[in-house]
Amino acid sequence: MINAAELRALASKASKAEAAGCVCTPLQTPSWESITDERWPAEVQRVGTLRQADVDEPTFEEFHPDGTRYESADAPVAVAWFPFNRSDVYACSRCRSVFLRYTEYGGYYVDHRVRRVDPQLVVPGPD
Asked: How far apart are CA 1 and CA 10, in angstroms?
């Protein structure tokens, strides 16, 4: 499991110059976006998770102290709250960009979502 400090450090290693035109460009979204498995680049591999192994059903509560929303590009990356608490962490082997990915399950659909990690937006979970 990756904690907030580790996620921030990992995301801080990304090269913005190398990210421009990288194979992971379709994932370079500042807010949650849908992405199909077919569009997922092979160079972007899972490096960890934000899911707590000892929690069967993580909360669906969101963390937006400044009035942001789920779809806000400036929403905090709050690792203990939804949807981050259900996300896996991925990194691009070329530009070192870091992404979060989780799957939204609806009544009749499965929707894979991705969001690039901005290290400035990562906030710690509750103690």
From this structure: 13
Segment 116-120 long-range contacts (CB within 8 Å, at least 24 positions apart): 116/27, 116/28, 116/29, 116/30, 117/7, 117/10, 117/11, 117/77, 117/89, 118/11, 118/30, 118/77, 119/7, 119/8, 119/9, 119/11, 119/12
Q: Are 23 and 92 in contact (CB under 8 A)?
A: yes
Q: In what order do the strands lie in the sheet with 88-92?
A: 33-34, 110-116, 98-105, 88-92, 44-49
Residues 60 and 46: their CA atoms lie apart, in Å, by: 23
Range of the domain at 89: 4-123
**pLDDT at res. 126:** 59
- Tokens 């509560």 correspond to 61
Smallest CA-to-CA distance from 33 within 119, 81, 104, 127 is with 104
Residue 98 pLDDT > 70: yes
Alpha carbons 115 and 2: distance in angstroms, whole number = 16
